[in-house]
Amino acid sequence: MKVSLVIPVYNESGHLLEFLKQVDALRFDGVQKELVIIDDCSKDESANILRTYKFSSEVQLHFQEANAGKGAAIRKGFELATGDIIGVQDADFEYSLDDLPSIVMPIVEGKADVVFGSRFKANVVQVHRTFHYLVNRFLTTFSNLFSGLYLTDMETCYKFFKADVIKNINLESNRFGFEPEITAKIARLKLKIIEVPIWYFPRNYLEGKKITWRDGIAALRHIVY
User: Fold this and answer.
1) Residue environment code for 28-58, b if the CB has 16+ CB neighbours within 10 A, otherwise e
2) E strands, 14-69, where?
3) Backbone angles phi, psi at 147, to 5 degrees
4) In a 3-state reduction of DSSP, which class is residue 211?
5) Half-sphere exposure of 37 (CA within 13 A, CB side)
6) Number of Cα atoms under 13 Å in the Cβ half of residue 72
7) Residue 66 per-residue DSSP state
8) What number is the average pLDDT over the span 174-203?
C-alpha cells in the first residue's frame, strides 16, 4: 500500500529546504510514501530549491506554467498521485508531520474512507489565534448545516482519502474554496468519514500565510453553491 502526499508550493523558499528534509525523512509503518509536489509558479527561489534537492523518497515534481491557485495545484496533484491513499500537506510547519501516521492508519486498516485532521477536537490542548479560530468555527458550523456532516474542522489542510474516492470527484475550485467544496461533495456519498485530533502552529502573514478575509467570504459562497 502507498500513500501520496500532495504538496502545493507557492513562494515558500524561506523554509522550504528544511520542510523538504523533514517530509522526505517521514516514514509510515508498512506503507510506502510518494511526494507529489506542485509548484504554483512561485516567484521566489522555491522552484530552484525543488529542482536541486536530492530526494530519497519517490517523488513527482510538477511546475505550473502560471499561478492558478492552491485548489488548482491540489487538483493537479490528485491527478498525478499514484498512491492507494491520497492527502494534502502544506509546504510549511503549521501542521505537524508527526500527526500523519494517525491520520493515514484508519484508512489503511479499513476503518475509514476519508479522514480529516481536526485542530479543534476536545483532546487537543493548544491556543489558537482568536480571529482565525472564530472564522474557522463559523465556517465549519455553516458547512455542517448544509452538508449534514458534524465536523469540528472543515477548513483543515489535513484531508486524506482512498484514491478511488478522490479521483472520482470532479473538483472545480482554484483557490481556497477547495476545502468547502470537497467537504460538500464527499457528504453526498455514503462514506466512512472520521476526524482525528492534530496539532496546529499558526503562522502570521509576515511568515507567509496567504489566506485572507476574502477567502472566508468566498468560502461562504462555495458552501452554498
Assistant:
1) beebebbbbbbbbbbeeebbebbeeeeeeee
2) 32-39, 58-63
3) -85, -25
4) coil
5) 26
6) 14
7) S
8) 89
How far, in Å, CA of 112 to CA of 105, rounded?
9
Whether the CB-CB separation of 74 and 152 falls below 8 Å is answered with no
Phi and psi for 194 in degrees, rounded to 5?
-130, 160
Per-residue model confidence as pLDDT tens digits over 153-188: 999 999 999 999 999 999 998 887 889 999 999 999
Q: With both helix axes pointing from N to C terminus, report the angle between 213-224 and 130-147 in degrees, rounded to the nearest 10.
A: 10
Kindly state the cell numbers that stand for 73. Answer: 495545484
Distance CA 137, CA 128 (A): 12
- pLDDT top residue among 175 and 5: 5
- pLDDT tens column, 142-154: 999 999 999 999 9
87-126 burial, b at 16+ Cβ within 10 Å, e below that, comes to bbbbbbeebeeebbeebbbbbbeeebbbbbbbbbeeebee
